Amino acid sequence: MINSEPVITVKNMVKKFGDFVANDNLNFEVFKGEIFGFIGANGAGKTTAIRILCGLSTPTSGEMKVAGFDIYRQTEKIKQNIGYMSQKFSLYEDLTINENIRFYGGIYGMQIAKRKARTAEMLERLELTEYGNRKIGDLPLGWKQKLAFSIAILHNPKIVFLDEPTGGVDPITRRQFWNLIYEAVEKGITVFVTTHYMDEAEYCDRVSIMADGRIVALDTPENLKLQYNAANMDEVFLKIAR
Amino acid sequence: MNRFLAFLRKEFHHIFRDPRTLVILFGIPIAQILLFGFVLTNEVRNVKIAVVDHSRDYLSTRLTERLLSSGFFQLAAIPSSENDYEGLFRSSKVKEIIVFEPNFATNIIKEGKAGIQVIADASEPNAAQLIVNYTTAIANDFMRDEFVKDQKLPGINIKVRMLFNENMRDAYNFIPGLIAVILMLVSAMMTAITITREKETGTMEILLASPLKPIQIILGKVVPYMLLSIVNALVVLLLGYFVFSVPIVGSLALLLGEILLFIFLALSLGILISTFVNSQITALAMSGFVLMLPSILLSGFIFPVKNMPVALQVIANLMPPRWFIEINRTVMLKGGGLAEIWPNTLILAGMSVLFIFISIRKFKIRLQ
């Protein structure tokens, strides 16, 4: 699925908050159809970078393109072509599943017929068809997370940004969540994901390891394990961090 | 446009599904009108009094009847002497004791003057003052009616007219003021809370990452509350007109225009507050202490601004409701037009522009 056509290009990305440098000269490309992982401890600058790429924050300097559009001048076009799932759970708890879907479909300007078809398909996949009129607040956390992801890709974006999507979820649900991610990739969606679970790093096509605002390593998990002579990503991470 | 409609639909779901929001939007305004209309009244009505008549002649009897038939007073006790006045007040049986001296009628006719002693319970000073004033006024009226027309008693005949509110009705005061307080509550406080809620729950991030423009998000949050504010303002005006007989002497169109301006101002104030705080609780506290208390206490709603110490007057002048209530009184009661209220209108418009300007700046800084 992966080809060499870049959908995200980042050159010399710098983000400063006063004297604090959150992103120190980041350079990377993300290719169409890959799962690109951003790994690092809390405070390494993962969220800052993802927020910049989603247009939620402006960089201090650097050149960046997302889905082929310039991050400074074509923000509107970028937003139409991406999906975003933040660290905080972000569906409306007082609305039902159907109402949430209708709302997000609405603000992304989806045609009604298309939205209805996608909704039916999605609820069936999640085995939630009969729960469409349940309020989100009444659902267990695992369901909510899977639903939030499915809604983030409802409008069929080119890229979906996931900021620590599996925080606080049990291992089984995390596995199911990653199955959903693979299915999205099969549909041609590029996935940009941050996590601090090292087992999740293994699921990515390529990972970039961040520390103190810098990218200290960027390769496929296999190559990184070879390079650092490690059995798994956890060891890789510990060796780099040392 | 469809995106915007989807947003509005969501907002109305939030509003009509949250009991707390509904109470603030509809319960509190109605409760305030009922409270101010029927409970918290400064008017003198059916005040319990005691009459000690040492004279029991035709004049003292008629004056007593005149007092009791005025509707302001109600006879609660007829003690034989005024000596136990403290006991009467302490048991709260009466608020005022009227004592006629012996030979009341004889003294008036022979000497041209006679004494009435009025003892009032001043543990509630404002009420006592009011009661005494009413008593004195009725007694003076009585004397005038009895003697002046026969030209037996010389004296200055003062005829008082309380212009714009001939009957000193409380509603004339509270309806114009209440519009301001309710609009502050519904527009400013609810806007601040609803925007802060999106920030607190994290949904604001999702909205900002969506193709919606920030201005669409803000408008989507604000428009439902604007509509509800208009409904609330109309309800207060209609209740004032039909239930409390408060007239709208001036131009209704002008009044509605000014109300819209104030709603706009309150909404921008709500937006401004939401740019400063990140949790609903803080938004509520900010709105409560920064908006509600001053708009009730420092706006001239209850206490006249001119009677305040200079320092408080300065603060009062910074309160939007202070200017808006003046507009309401001028247009509703005095029939004034733009010629009288243009400075107030300008101040309100200026404040709105300032609030919007600061909000936009704060928003841009947040993105950086």
* Physical arrangement of strands within the biggest beta sheet of chain A: 6-7-8-3-9-10
Count of beta strands of chain B: 4
Q: What's the average pLDDT of chain A?
A: 91
CATH architecture name of chain A? 3-Layer(aba) Sandwich
Overall geometry of chain B comes to elongated
The greatest inter-chain interface is formed by: A-B, 31 and 25 residues
Radius of gyration of chain A over all CA atoms, rounded: 18 Å
Largest sheet of chain A: 6 strands, mixed
| Strand residue percentage of chain B | 5-15%
**In terms of quaternary structure, what is this?**
heterodimer
Unreliable runs of chain B: none
Characteristic terms for this protein:
heterodimer, A: 242 residues, alpha/beta, Rossmann fold, 4-stranded antiparallel β-sheet, 9 helices, globular, B: 368 residues, abc type-2 transporter like fold, 2 domains, 4-stranded mixed β-sheet, 14 helices, 4 strands, 6% strand, elongated
